[in-house]
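Lab meeting, action items carried over

1. Structure of the two-component assembly. Owner: GW. Status: complete.
Input record:
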Amino acid sequence: MSREGAESRPAVTASTEAMEMIHRLGAAHGALAFFQSGGCCNGSSPMCLKQGELPLGPQDLWLGEIAGAPFYIDSEQYERWGKPSLIIEVSPGAAEGFSLEELEGVHFVTRTAP
Amino acid sequence: MSTVESTTYAPPGEAGSPVELEERYKNFIGGDWVAPTTGEYRENPTPSTGEPFCEVAYSGAADIERALDAAHAAKGAWGRRSPSDRAAVLNAVADAIEENLEMLAVAESYENGKPVRETLAADIPLAADHFRYFAGAIRAEEGRISEIDENTYAYHFHEPLGVVGQIIPFNFPLLMAAWKIAPALAAGNCSVIKPASPTPWSILKLMEVIGDIVPAGVINVVNGPGAEIGKALASNKRIAKIGFTGETVTGRLIMSYAAQNIIPSTTELGGKSPNIFFEDVMAADDAFLDKAIEGLVLYAFNKGEVCTCPSRALIQESIYDEFMPRVLARIGAIKQGDPLDRETMIGAQVSTSQLEKIAGYVQIGRDEGAEVLIGGGRPPLNGRLAGGYYFEPTALRGHNKMRVFQEEIFGPVVAVTTFRTEDEALELANDTLYGLGAGVWTRDGSRAFRMGRAIQAGRVWTNCYHQYPAHAAFGGYKASGVGRENHRMMLEHYTQTKCLLVSYDPSALGFF
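Predicted assembly:
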């Protein structure tokens, strides 16, 4: 795990609605962590897991925290994305995969700041 | 067909449809339909209109335990059945799928949004063939004997693992289930299956068809949220192996759970597959050129919801101006509409979240300077289809460093760029995190071979694309996952090796 250096703009932020959902999930499940996914099916989704559920690897880049939850992305993936600032939002429709917000019938979405 | 003239199937449950529909579907556990312990069900919409058409169990972790109880109760007897007995069951499953081909094809199309002409011609026939293939493969399987010395022999047996967990993706709900179930059962295992959340139902229609053919407990299907039951299955101490198809973070979770329980896993995690067109494809205006043009347009197969979607088209610069207009004309001729219409060539995306994501990526492409060559938005569909999850087949032109060339969009969007030399084509092809599929199109056999060997991907289609015969290994290099599916080598992924080391020598070793 490595950290991005101090930059003028946070590498990851979340919308008000997303922050509310993260707090709600935190109240139900305890401390949370986000991992940006890639690849098949739901590959561009941020996955919201219980903290510690997925052991961190040396390639996991810490981008910041949203509503107290750390947000990680694969460092090579972040490089290939062009190191954008990420904005996490929440939309109706259940998430897929093992992401916890599926239980609330919504899914988080990663958008990039213009 | 609902009428003699119509090319459109009536939706499941409506008069004239080949598919009967109930209001509510339970889990399939131990050969019976079992209500979820949670008592909860969720509405299941069809992507073609966005309207719910049935309810499906929304289970909890306790339902996974029930399914595991049933599988463990069945595993001893099933594992001891002779290979020819198990093969007979698999062949009977294949026969039943074939006898119900139209019903299953319509069900699959309706739930997933893919055109019925694809499910009639590909998904369902391939699923039946997969069971036949592994029925044959298990009968041809044999152990090996090693002669250590004239009195000492190592006998190697393939033994079933026992009970395996299998998590199925939403893009080919029945075919991907067949890919996982057939080798597992052939090898003597019992399975607990968690279908993808957007497509919980068509596999239950399959269970209606094969539930009496397969002994109780050998196949069990539990529907519900991945965050709860997917995890309960993948991290369970009572499975001996986990198979998963999906995205990279869940893939890492699966492998991490497997590591914690010291069991094997196979993961298939998608890709960003290059499809490479060398200038000699245009050396003649013939059937091969026509095939190559279709080969590029295959990105729209299954509305791009394919792990191996040829979503990066790399075209030699010298032919781009002649080749691309012909491709665009072919894309422009794609008929989009009701998936149940046999003339429809592209249907609806599986869910609103997928639809949003695709639109988001096309916007990202525009923002980073990609040129929209065709498509780029929602098609104007009216009536019942207005609420469906449709997106036009789209082509973007840009360069390989753009995000639309690097990230899997999982929709009908191809990112097109050009190259000058073979070396540059190879560099672009391999400049990706993933390595699942690739396509090479050329009339030069030596070049095809060189490229095929040098591309870092598990499957390089050469002068073809999107063919999935059971006897050809499929799986990823790099971040596209670990392990293979298809081919009889799969039996090794679903068996344990037992070595009996036997001495026929009456003499002691002499140490003590």
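2. GW to write a short summary for the group page. Key points so far: The radius of gyration of chain B is 24 Å. Chain B has 15 helices and 25 strands.
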